[in-house]
From TrEMBL:
<feature type="transmembrane region" description="Helical">
    <location>
        <begin position="224"/>
        <end position="244"/>
    </location>
</feature>
<feature type="transmembrane region" description="Helical">
    <location>
        <begin position="147"/>
        <end position="165"/>
    </location>
</feature>
<feature type="transmembrane region" description="Helical">
    <location>
        <begin position="46"/>
        <end position="65"/>
    </location>
</feature>
<dbReference type="InterPro" id="IPR013416">
    <property type="entry name" value="CHP02587_IM"/>
</dbReference>
<keyword id="KW-1133">Transmembrane helix</keyword>
<keyword id="KW-0472">Membrane</keyword>
<protein>
    <submittedName>
        <fullName>TIGR02587 family membrane protein</fullName>
    </submittedName>
</protein>
<feature type="transmembrane region" description="Helical">
    <location>
        <begin position="185"/>
        <end position="203"/>
    </location>
</feature>
<dbReference type="Pfam" id="PF09622">
    <property type="entry name" value="DUF2391"/>
</dbReference>
<feature type="transmembrane region" description="Helical">
    <location>
        <begin position="256"/>
        <end position="276"/>
    </location>
</feature>
<keyword id="KW-0812">Transmembrane</keyword>
<dbReference type="InterPro" id="IPR024464">
    <property type="entry name" value="DUF2391"/>
</dbReference>
<feature type="transmembrane region" description="Helical">
    <location>
        <begin position="12"/>
        <end position="34"/>
    </location>
</feature>
<feature type="transmembrane region" description="Helical">
    <location>
        <begin position="77"/>
        <end position="103"/>
    </location>
</feature>
Length: 277
């Protein structure tokens, strides 16, 4: 019996199992990262809620553009995002308990904080798995939604959050940023810009885009690659702020250096998302 012919209950079970596998694929490294456990406990509640809210917006973007147009309405997209977020919470709670990171004797705020924080990469992995690892019904060749310019920017933002979240809780981006000189920071920024353009347009990866006919390569560079890098840097700055690496008392130069350091990761995530979705 094929997936397309399976009963609704079987399809639901397969979808949840697939989402769980995708959640583990993306979220397991963070689930076993001590810094993330600490942030889940130490982050102010309002920051934790803000981060979870941003994650839900990312889930909406991923579900909208990775789902099949003839299968999903906007209500379906919202429902799938809720399911991915809920699956993230359940899987994160179960594994954190198995690992002994949460358990009896801990305060409610500590347990909830750790589970909510760790659920974010798991929920994103579940969403990506639903769109990218699923099966198509009976060989039908259905097309995904056309993103358009702003949709592509939104996808890039989602990819930047996904990749950045796996690194931002650690101390390494902060340390790298503080160790780099101004010249090294400028070179790293250039590397980020080059890879952002090359991955999507120049290296012929599967899913990469040719420069449209009649469009100036320089125009595409600024309108697409420079904008993508800018979005990636803003995501990097947001994550550094969320995790307390930068604040109002941090100098402009150290903030810039740390943002560029983490921006290498977020820009790679933004480029990868454009290829995948």
């Amino acid at each position: 019996m094929t997936t397309a012919q399976a009963s609704p209950n079987r399809q639901t079970a397969l979808g949840l199992a697939r989402g769980t596998a995708g959640g583990l694929l993306l979220g397991l490294p963070v689930l076993m990262t001590m810094e993330m456990w600490q942030h889940g406990y130490a982050l102010p509640t309002w920051k934790l809620l803000l981060l979870w809210g941003v994650n839900f917006l990312v889930l909406l973007v991923l579900e909208y553009y990775s789902g099949f147009q003839d299968e999903e309405t906007l209500a379906d997209v919202a429902q799938d995002a809720v399911i991915a977020a809920g699956l993230g919470l359940v899987v994160a709670a179960a594994l954190l308990w198995i690992f002994g990171v949460i358990g009896p004797g801990m305060g409610t705020r500590e347990v909830v904080g750790k589970v909510v924080a760790e659920s974010i990469p798991v929920s994103i992995g579940a969403s990506v798995a639903a769109g990218q690892l699923g099966t198509r019904g009976q060989g039908e060749d259905r097309k995904r939604r056309e993103a358009g310019y702003w949709g592509t920017v939104a996808i890039a933002l989602g990819g930047a959050v996904v990749f950045g979240f796996n690194v931002a809780p650690t101390e390494e981006p902060m340390l790298v940023g503080l160790m780099m000189s101004d010249v090294q920071t400028a070179l790293l920024l250039l590397v980020s810009l080059v890879q952002t353009h090359a991955v999507v347009y120049a290296l012929d990866f599967r899913g990469s885009d040719p420069i449209p006919e009649g469009r100036s390569p320089l125009g595409v560079f600024f309108r697409s690659s420079v904008v993508t890098l800018t979005v990636s840097l803003l995501v990097a700055l947001f994550l550094l702020w969320i995790f307390g690496r930068v604040d109002a008392d941090t100098g402009l130069v150290p903030t810039l250096h740390m943002t560029v350091a983490l921006g290498l990761v977020t820009s790679l995530g933004a480029s990868a998302a454009k290829l995948l979705l």
